[in-house]
Amino acid sequence: MRDPLSVLTEAFTAFLFGKVETTRLPVRTSTGQAQAVYLPTAAPGLGDSGVIIGREVYSGKGYIYDPFQLYGQQLPAPHWLVLGESGNGKSALEKTYVLRQLRFRDRQVVVLDAQGEDGVGEWNLIAQELGITPIRLDPMVANDAGIRLNPLDPSITTTGQLALLRTIIEVAMGHGLDERSGFALKVAHAYVTEHTTDRQPILTDIVERLRHPEAESAESMNVDIDDVRAWGLDVALVLDRLVDGDLRGMFDGPTTVGIDLDAPLIVFDLSHIDRNSIAMPILMAIVGVWLEHTWIRPDRKKRIFLVEEAWHIINSPFVAQLFQRLLKFGRRLGLSFVAVVHHLSDVVDGAAAKEAAAILKMASTRTIYAQKADEARNTGRVLGLPRWAVEIIPTLTPGIAVWDVNGNVQVVKHLITEKERPLVYTDRAMTESSVTDPELEWETEQRAILIEQQMNGTSQSTVA
C-alpha cells in the first residue's frame, strides 16, 4: 500500500505542473514471446475471383490467380512466364492450372507439348480424361495418314503465308533472306496463289515454281530468268526439307480435315520431334501462325496458349518476331500466353536478346521455382525482383515458388487435389515431385481436400 503522503504529494504536483509520465524499465524477452505482441503481416492477395493455385506460405491464405480477372486492374498484360529447374513442380502447376481454368465455360486452351514418355506427350493423360485426341505431329507417320498443317492454308492471309514462308526459311538458314532471294520467293508465292484455284496450294507448288520461275517474273524486273532461278535455289532447297526431307509429311499437303478448333483443350503433341534440332522452332512458327489465323477469334472466349520448351520460340529472332506480334494481337482478343522455360539465361543471352526482352516485358506475371544462386541473381536482375525474393529462390523446395504479379511478390505453395494427382503426376512428374517435404504432406492433403470441396461448389466467381 502506497504512503498517504506520497499520494498527496503526487496529486498536488500533478495539479501544479500537469500529469507526470510514469517511467517503466525496459522489458527483456525472447523473439518467441515477442511475436505475440508484434504480429506478422502478409501482403494482400489478388482477390477472390479466378482459380485457386495453393496457399501463400507466410500467411497461410489461399492464393487465387486469374489473368483475365486481373487484366486492366492489376495486370497490364495477361501473359505469364514460368521459370525453374527440372524437378521443382513446373509441370504440375501447368496442368492443374489448365484443368482448373477449363471449369469456366468461356475458357479454351492450346498446349504445345514438347515433352513425353512412352511414345506420347505428357499431356496425353489429361487429353484422354477430357475425351480429346492430341494433334500428333510426327514425320515418321505423316505420310501414312498423319496430321498435316498447311502453311498455305487459305484461312491464312496471303501476307501471313508469305511472312510464314520467310520465317521457315530464315530459321533453317540461320540468317535473314537477302533481297534477291526474298524477291524470288515473293514472285513464286504470288504465282502459286493466283493460279491454284481448284485446290489448296501446297509447299510443293512453291518449290516447283522456285526451280522453274515464270518468264514474266524476270521481265517485270528486267533481269534474266536464270538469275531469278539462281536467287531462289537456296530457298527451294530449304523448303524441300519440308517436302522430301526429315520434316516431310507434316506440312506438304492440305490441312487435315477434322481438327476440332472448338474443343476446350487442343494439344499439339511435338514429343516425337528432336527438341534440339532446327525442326522444333520451325514447327512452333508454323503452329503459331496457323493458330493466329484459325483459332483466335473475336467471340469473347478467353484463350490460353501454353508453350513448353518456349526457349525454341524466344531464342530465335525470326520466330520471336512472329510470336511478339501474336501476343500484341491476341491481347485485344482475350489471349493469355504462357511460356515455360528452365533458365532465363537460355533466352536473354541468346541470339534473340532484343526480341526476348520485348516478350519478357509483356509477361506481367512471373513464377520462379528453385534455381541455383547464380541463376537466381541473374533472374532477379533481369526481372527486377526484390532482394529478399532473390535470396530465397535457391532455398525453395519442390512445389513452392516466388510469384511476381506486376510487382505483387509472394511465396506460394502449389496444392494438388487427389482427383488431379493421377493426371498431373506422370512418371516423369512423379520423379520430379519425389523429394517433397514429408512433414508437409498431411497439411497439403488437408488443404487439397478443401480445394476439392470448393471445386465441387456452385460459385462462378471463384473456381479451383
Task: Explain the overall architecture.
GO terms for molecular function: ATP binding. This is ATP-binding protein. The chain is of the alpha/beta class and 464 residues long. The protein folds into 2 domains: 50-129 and 263-463, Rossmann fold (3-Layer(aba) Sandwich), CATH 3.40.50.300; 158-243. It has helices spanning 4-17, 31-34, 67-70, 90-101, 124-129, 158-173, 179-195, 203-211, 215-219, 225-231, 233-243, 279-294, 311-314, 317-331, 345-348, 353-362, 373-383, 387-392, 421-424, 427-433, 441-455, and strands spanning 50-56, 62-65, 79-83, 107-113, 116-117, 120-121, 135-136, 265-269, 302-307, 335-341, 363-368, 400-405, 408-414, 462-463. The strands form 2 sheets. Strands 1, 2, 3, 4, 7, 8, 9, 10, 11, 12, 13 and 14 form a 12-stranded mixed beta sheet that branches. Strands 5-6 form a two-stranded antiparallel sheet. The longest helix has 17 residues, at 179-195. It is elongated and about 125 Å long.
